[in-house]
Write a structure and sequence with these properties.
There is one protein chain. With 567 residues, the protein is an alpha/beta fold. It is built from 18 helices and 14 strands. The chain has a 6-stranded mixed beta sheet with strand order 8-11-12-6-13-14, with helices on both faces. A 4-stranded mixed beta sheet has the order 3-7-4-5, with helices on one face. A hairpin with a 2-residue loop joins strand 1 and strand 2. It is elongated, with a radius of gyration of 35 Å.
Length: 567
């Protein structure tokens, strides 16, 4: 990412919240935080002036001024503490509000139109979207506020203490041959050139940190995701005895984490050598510059200490980018990841499905000139036109990879690589059951009604008994990871319970009984016929026993051709 595109990406991410429906409250709170920081700078100027009075009193042995000056410092210090604490507290309040808004926008966009699914279908190189939303947004908001408020505070510090330092520096005379040159505010100019050179050198030394921080986050996320996949598939791995293979995979990914971290450490070490050397040199420089005036009697001890303090404040302000370079590098890496994620979501949104949904008065399901293909343009089904009357029971068959499941994805609207026309009655409800049902975290009751809301309490127990899950009636409100507790067969029976609870007009079953024995499979299909006789059923499966549960067979060849026959 070039500098221009990086600034553009930062601007796009930054300005959204501040131009949103919450802009006036957000801007007002941010302005108040900035105002507190400006007032804090004013207090620092007062403390700087106090140095002059206090050290002059010490030099002149004015014992009567000692305790009043200590009291004055105590009041200034206490006020400074209160202002500094509330400046940070309210900045964090801005951070929470901004992060909440930005997270909501990204979640809405990620979930809208199945973008989360399309990113996988399109083989997008976006890695770990969950980390982008949970961690990168938080870092972006935190680092942006930290750098913005810090920059404004240091800019104000530079203006305030620059004037103080200019006045304290006086004039410095340089003799070159027979000519004399007078430099006014020489300490200010020296500080300016010193910091400018330091900033340039810090960029040259630390610029590699941006790419290394980006890679470190990616490798860490890959390592964490690999362990998460093992936890989700622990039973399969245990059956295979795949501990050695998994351990090898863990070490390979962890080796990437460590290798990149070593590079990050080496680059950070070089930057830290420079930054610490630069900071330590700045401690002695103002004493060296002010010493001639002090020993000449032009300034007192208080003036010397005030000059050193003012020089330090100006130096800190001018050195802000040197000391914040690592933070800037982290922000640049975060902006790069978030802008890449945003770009991939935009690409996923641009892929339009060619399926035209048309509302009809008939309860039949009609398909006209349907084409289903893969992302590489290979055609699985072509010129498919058929009408399925309400209550039809159709079995989709064919060899593995011929496009049976992809056909169901196309009809559901989540597969973007399809064309044709789908006609349904207005308000028709469709329900799709995959081979492994999804069970959300929470109670079993919530899992039964997913994705809808809980309702129809009087039917729930009867439905569980109908599908053979009556032993879980007393555990409906127990919150747990039910995908871990229930076997795959029990999960598939729970999916059939969802059908009875939602009563769709058409249900599409993708290997939805693969984990059930044949008698249980026949029992569940018979249950659907009895309970929902007008509901259409479209099933994908390989078992020969499924033919007895359906009226027609739609056989796919996988090369675009198809055949519909009566069973």
């Amino acid at each position: 990412m070039g500098k221009g595109s990086a600034f553009k990406a930062f601007g796009q991410l930054f300005r959204g919240y501040w131009n949103s429906e919450h802009k006036w409250k957000a801007r007002g709170l941010l302005a108040f935080v900035i105002g507190l920081n400006f007032f804090d700078v004013y207090l620092l100027v007062q403390i700087n002036s106090w140095y002059n009075e206090f050290y002059n009193a010490l030099q002149q042995y004015r014992a009567g001024d000692f305790w009043p000056l200590v009291g004055e410092f105590t009041a200034l210090a206490m006020l400074h503490i209160v202002i500094a604490v509330y400046a940070i507290y309210l900045r964090q309040a801005v951070q929470i509000k901004w992060r909440t808004w930005l997270t909501d926008k990204y979640l809405s966009r990620w979930l809208k139109r199945q973008v989360y699914y399309r990113l996988q279908v399109q083989n997008s190189d976006t890695d770990n979207p969950d980390q982008r939303i949970s961690e990168d947004i938080n870092q972006f908001v935190n680092l942006s506020l930290q750098l913005l408020i810090g920059f404004l505070k240091q800019l104000t510090t530079l203006a305030a203490f620059g004037v103080v330092l200019w006045n304290l520096s006086g004039a410095f005379t340089v003799e070159l041959g027979s000519r004399e040159f007078v430099i006014y505010g020489y300490m200010f100019w020296f500080s300016l050139f010193y910091s400018g050179g330091g900033t340039l050198c810090a960029h040259l030394v630390g610029r590699k940190l941006i790419g290394l921080n980006f890679e470190q986050q990616r490798f860490e996320a890959d390592f964490r995701f690999n362990m998460m996949r093992m936890r989700e598939n622990s039973e399969s791995i245990a059956f295979y005895g795949g501990e050695y293979a998994e351990n090898k995979g863990f070490h390979e990914r962890f080796a990437q984490v460590i290798s990149n971290f070593w590079q990050l450490m080496k680059q950070t070490k070089i930057l830290n050598f420079y930054v610490n050397g630069y900071a330590q040199l700045a401690v002695i420089v103002p004493l060296i510059l002010a010493a001639p005036q002090y020993f000449a009697g032009a300034i007192a001890l208080g003036g010397l200490m005030q000059t050193v303090s003012a020089f330090g404040r100006v130096q800190d302000a001018l050195s802000y980018f040197v000391e914040s370079y690592d933070t800037i590098a982290q922000l640049a890496a975060v902006v790069k990841r978030l802008s890449s994620f945003t770009e991939h979501m935009e690409m996923a949104e641009m892929v339009e499905s060619g399926i035209v949904r048309q509302e009809e008065s008939s309860r039949d399901l009609s398909i006209e000139d349907l084409r289903v293909q893969l992302p590489d343009a290979r055609i699985l089904l072509d010129k498919c036109t058929l009408t399925l009357p309400a209550g039809s029971r159709v079995l989709v068959t064919g060899s593995s990879g011929c496009g049976k499941s992809t056909l169901l994805r196309t009809l559901s609207g989540i597969w973007p690589y399809g064309q044709g026309k789908l006609s349904l009655r207005q308000g028709s409800r469709l329900l799709f059951l995959p081979q492994r049902p999804y069970l959300p975290l929470g109670s079993l009751r919530r899992a039964l009604y997913y994705p809808g809301t809980v309702g129809q309490e009087d039917r729930l127990q009867a439905v569980l008994q109908r599908v053979g899950l009556e032993k879980f009636i007393n555990r409906l409100d127990e919150i747990d990871d039910w995908s871990r507790i229930l076997s795959l067969g029990e999960q598939q029976r729970l999916a059939f319970a969802r059908v009875l609870l939602t009563k769709p007009d058409w249900v599409f079953l993708d290997e939805a009984t693969s984990a059930l024995d044949e008698p249980r499979e026949a029992e569940l299909y018979q249950m659907l016929k009895e309970e929902l006789p007008d509901m259409g059923i479209v099933s994908v499966g390989h078992r020969s026993t499924l033919f007895a549960q359906h009226q027609q067979e739609l056989r796919l060849a996988g090369d675009g051709t198809w055949q519909l026959r009566n069973i």
